[in-house]
Amino acid sequence: xxxxxxxxxxxxxxxxxxxxxxxxxxxxxxxxxxxxxxxxxxxxxxxxxxxxxxxxxxxxxxxxxxxxxxxxxxxxxxxxxxxxxxxxxxxxxxxxxxxxxxxxxxxxxxxxxxxxxxxxxxxxxxxxxxxxxxxxxxxxxxxxxxxxxxxxxxxxxxxxxxxxxxxxxxxxxxxxxxxxxxxxxxxxxxxxxxxxxxxxxxxxxxxxxxxxxxxxxxxxxxxxxxxxxxxxxxxxxxxxxxxxxxxxxxxxxxxxxxxxxxxxxxxxxxxxxxxxxxxxxxxxxxxxxxxxxxxxxx
Length: 298
Ligand SMILES: NC(=O)c1ccc[n+]([C@@H]2O[C@H](COP(=O)([O-])OP(=O)(O)OC[C@H]3O[C@@H](n4cnc5c(N)ncnc54)[C@H](O)[C@@H]3O)[C@@H](O)[C@H]2O)c1
Description:
Layout: E1 8-12, H1 16-27, E2 32-36, H2 40-59, H3 66-74, E3 76-79, H4 82-87, E4 91-94, H5 100-113, E5 119-122, H6 129-133, E6 142-147, E7 156-161, H7 167-179, E8 183-188, H8 196-212, H9 218-229, H10 235-242, H11 244-250, H12 252-259, H13 261-264, H14 268-275, H15 287-293
Parallel strand pairs: 1-2, 1-4, 2-3, 4-5, 5-6, 7-8
Antiparallel strand pairs: 6-7
The structure holds nicotinamide-adenine-dinucleotide.
């Protein structure tokens, strides 16, 4: 596969990341994009979000005309049928919920329906790509592309290479990432959390442990990290923004399978707050709210 042969992008999952990825490939890459989710309401919510962001950050600021926005929106099609998405895509990124069983099923279905040379990528935050590879009959064409949130702003994409991926697949994936304005960093598929999340996770866990011990509020821990280490956002604030608490809770079993109990285990505070509905994500309650509503008084 050559970069020039990639004309159509498929995105599985129209949640926070899937919708932003669809926007990136249509807006920056100029690609035709098909996006899927488990029902049409979720697909339409994702597409509506793209429309809103293009309006707010581009049209309203005079950076894009209404016609340009319409043409980007016209390049994005929604479906609930993964087979249909697969048939019409040259490069597919899976951005469904962080759960290995669901991801494996998606990869099986993509593999069964996509053209033989279509590349299948996953946006997983931490799960082994090799297990997704093994759910397909195209092990040389499965790779990881881990984008960061918010996609439009963050330059990093980690390109994760399982042992069976071909040099051709890796090369064209790196070229594609550059074409949509990202800076790829390579990572072998033997690291839970790849590069950035593995290092960040160790620090985040200490921040959460301090909140659990009532050493300080998450707001003050973040203030210390911002003023003391020049972080643009504190770790607690960042996970409130990205919905990382919910992702961490939903992938705990897969992480434990991968690295055993100690490093895979969700912190008890993250378990408690996500069970109580404080999962984070845009406009949703996370650790700041859990501290104010519950923990500071409990
Ligand atoms: N949120 C982040 O900051 C972030 C950053 C980098 C990577 N990721 C990763 O990206 C992926 C998606 O995360 P998100 O934050 O967008 O989650 P999300 O919960 O916002 O969206 C996931 C979407 O996947 C859909 N889905 C579930 N099963 C599906 C299926 N069988 N077919 C199609 N869609 C299905 C859900 O209905 C949901 O809309 C995860 O693997 C996550 O670890 C997330």
